[in-house]
Specification:
The structure is a single chain. The protein is built from 19 helices and 18 strands. The chain has 581 residues and is α+β, with helices and mostly antiparallel strands. It folds into two domains: 218 residues, Dipeptide-binding Protein, domain 1, CATH 3.90.76.10; 235 residues, Dipeptide-binding Protein, domain 3, CATH 3.10.105. The protein has a ten-stranded mixed beta sheet with strand order 8-9-10-1-11-18-12-17-15-16, with helices on both faces. Helix 11 packs antiparallel against helix 13, helix 12 runs antiparallel to helix 14 and helix 18 packs antiparallel against helix 19.
Length: 581
């Protein structure tokens, strides 16, 4: 389901780390090393508290999960579990039998106590993983029956129950909790509404350290049972993973366990001109971050065709303009708390122009958070056209007029004349965001709305979004070919607790619909509710939905031809094998 990785790359690390644990010099052209181009770093590599999709990809190569999703199909596969678990309808319990061949780096076998520990840490109210907690609400207990058998009890049967088990990487209890702080604390205590941190002073100390910077960025604190290990993270340059020697999965061909390259290097280059020049010199093996305009030109060159596989494919990711529906009225004026105004903003946003200028009109426009290729997509929702005249009419209906003839709309709010002027936040990770914001702001200005572009790096952008410290923002969400759960982004509780509902959408009624979606197993009834939820979002217009993001993928043809995925990761780097000469 990739729940935790649904967030688009939103955070960049704030600290420079140069790991001295790996000083060996490598010849990338000689050794079996995959050089993957990235335009942003992951938020962090914390075992529980991260958000970005790149972090999720790195974890796929370095961690182990109970289950995993197939990136090419909407299906789950067992990983640490021997088989998909058996569900007892009477007790609402999943019975897991675990494999006995998966080992931690110290040689210990991954066992049921590690799984219990994983859910305790993620459930704990002192763990800073707010984005991940909604999906654990349905889990009430984890019972260890033996080293390799356990039961996980849920409140009720839900559509996403099994998928949840594919989103929480298993944590080694001995590595993270050597003093056994969690041993005498039950899952129900950690999950209790009456939980008080003052009662658990040792847990508070443990959590403060666990949530700290070392576990975010320091490779010495990075631990996982997967085939690759983090050996270096040099800020603003690269992240290097190395295949473990004598790893327990060395003879496997499973896509989530195999490790054919000796190293996976994620090298940062944000500059379009610079990374295009490097690609033309064959210095990158893989990229899915190339600016569309340059990508089209490169594909026309013979040298590029000679050295790279390439393709443009749709993804489940979508871009959007998010509006602050619940501004505080002081630092952020009450501009977008009216759905009429939000509808006007959609009419005034030149989505087709942005698509044409920046993407050569290749991206598919969207009307809701569900990708059009999914069966639950609501095809009855019509695209909102570009109509400045209608937008002006709606704004006047909401009280926004140019009363002082200065070419800027204004309105009396709480007895004070307020200009329709706001900050439009965007990410500095790609020229696309900067160029799109420029086009959009120019359009708004034509009807008397002043949007001031504000570029932010990823950590600042995310901090402002989660703390509702913004007016409007241009961002993106990462999706997947798996069942959708509206909880993380659209439940009102996720605004109140500074979760991923950045804009403040929803109320108790909408929350109930979301809860109904999650527990409705009948395919037709489920689809009806999902389409209904899309219609509500469409009518409330918390976002100006833009379009599905396309993926411009290249891969060196020194490798056997890989499969390009609509879901993340675009290419399974661990499966790349060099052609035999």
């Amino acid at each position: 389901m990739n729940i935790i990785c649904k967030i688009s790359p939103l955070i960049v690390t704030l600290y420079f780390i140069s790991c001295n644990s790996s000083t060996k010099k490598y010849d990338e052209k000689k050794d079996n090393i995959v050089m993957s181009h990235i335009i942003n770093e992951p938020d962090n590599l914390h075992p529980t508290n991260g958000l970005s999709s790149l972090r999720g990809e790195i974890f796929l190569y370095s961690q182990v999960y109970l289950l995993t999703g197939n990136p090419n199909k909407n299906e789950l596969m067992p990983w640490l579990a021997k088989t998909l678990p058996i569900f007892d309808e009477k007790t609402n319990e999943f019975l897991f039998d675990l494999r006995e061949d998966i080992k931690w780096d110290n040689g210990d076998v991954v066992n049921a106590n590690d799984v219990l520990f994983t859910f305790k840490v993620n459930k704990s109210k002192l763990t800073n993983n707010i984005h991940a907690k909604p999906f654990l609400d349905n889990i009430t207990s984890v019972e260890v029956i033996s080293n390799f058998k356990l039961k996980i009890k849920v409140k009720k049967k839900q559509v996403i129950n099994l998928w949840v088990f594919s989103d929480y990487n298993i944590l080694q209890e001995k590595f993270y909790d050597s003093t056994s702080v969690f041993k005498n604390i039950t899952l129900s205590e950690l999950d209790s509404p009456s939980f008080s941190e003052t009662k658990y002073s040792l847990l508070k100390q443990w959590s403060d350290k666990f949530n700290g910077q070392d576990y975010n960025y320091n490779p010495d604190f990075f631990n996982g049972a997967g085939p690759y290990k983090l050996i270096a993270w040099q800020r603003d340059q690269f992240i290097r993973l190395e295949k473990k020697k004598n790893h327990w999965a060395k003879d496997t061909s499973k896509f989530f366990e195999c490790a054919f390259p000796d190293q996976l290097v994620f090298r940062l280059n944000k500059s379009v001109n610079s990374y295009v020049a490097e690609i033309e010199k064959n210095e990158f093996d893989v990229s899915n971050n190339i600016d569309f305009r340059y990508f089209v030109k490169m594909r026309e060159k013979d040298n590029f065709k000679k050295h790279y596989y390439s393709d443009i494919i749709d993804t489940y990711n979508y871009s959007y303009l998010g509006m602050n529906m619940k501004p505080n009225g002081t630092t952020h004026s009450k501009l977008f708390d009216n759905f009429i105004v939000r509808k006007a903003m959609a009419l005034a946003t030149p989505v087709d122009d942005v698509n044409k200028i920046l993407n050569n009109s290749t991206s598919k426009r969207i009307t809701s958070p569900i990708a059009p290729m999914k069966k639950d997509f609501n095809a009855d929702l019509k695209l909102i056209g570009y109509d400045l005249a209608q937008a002006t009419t709606l704004l006047a209906q909401a009280g926004w007029k140019d009363t002082d003839h200065d070419n800027v709309l204004d309105k009396i709010i709480n007895g004070k004349k307020t200009n329709f002027e706001f900050e439009l936040n965007y990410l500095t990770i790609s020229d696309f965001y900067k160029d799109a914001v420029t086009i959009i702001a120019d359009s708004y200005k034509k009807i008397g709305i002043i949007a001031i572009p504000k570029p932010y790096d990823l950590p600042t952008f995310y901090d402002k979004a989660s703390n509702h410290d913004f007016d409007m923002m241009l961002a993106a969400w990462t999706g997947a070919n798996t069942p959708d759960d509206f909880s993380q982004i659209w439940k009102s509780t996720e605004w109140a607790n500074n979760g991923s509902n950045f804009v403040g959408f929803g109320n108790k009624l909408y929350d109930q619909i979301i809860d109904s979606i999650n527990v409705t197993l009948d395919e037709n009834d489920h689809s009806f509710l999902v389409k209904k939820m899309q219609k509500i979002i469409y009518e409330e217009q918390p976002y100006v939905f833009l379009f599905l993001q396309t993926r411009r993928i290249i891969c060196s043809n020194k490798y056997n031809k890989p499969v390009f995925n609509n879901s993340n990761p675009a290419i399974l780097l661990n499966k790349l094998t060099i052609k035999k000469k």
